[in-house]
Amino acid sequence: MSEQLTYEQALEKLDEKLKLLEDGDLSLEDALNAVDEARVYLKVCTERLEAARKKIEIRPEPRE
Question: What is the pTM for the complete model shown?
Answer without folding.
Answer: 0.79
